Amino acid sequence: MNHEIGDPAVNVTVEDVRDAFRRIGAKQGDVVMFHGSLSSMGTVDGGPTTIFDGVLAPTEPRGTVVMPSLWYDGSEERRDPSKFDVNTSPAYVGAMAEGMRLDPRSIRSNHWTHAVAAIGERAAELCA
What we know:
Layout: E1 11-12, H1 14-23, E2 31-33, E3 43-44, H2 48-56, E4 64-68, H3 95-102, E5 107-108, E6 116-120, H4 123-127
Parallel strand pairs: 1-3, 2-4
Antiparallel strand pairs: 4-6, 5-6
Helix pairs in contact: 1-2, 2-3
């Protein structure tokens, strides 16, 4: 990588994300749980999917990526758990979390206050 993720003057690629997660020790079969801000990364070629693919790359095969996909934000309108729908209630914690929720590969846990979404080998287990 010839630049830092977060530099708005460059485009972040899947390879940049892959290399960054390799540097911090992500390896084959790992479960990586993280939260991040897409807007703080600069320009990300391909949007949130690029981030998920980049995090999964060093963990494949059998790796899994997990992110919070929280719906409950403390507001009055969301204090009723019956209003949460695992398939349609949006994540309020940013574009990346919402991107994970909407990714066709992801599974989301059915927890109205602390939902997570996951992609990969252990996604169903972690979201059960």
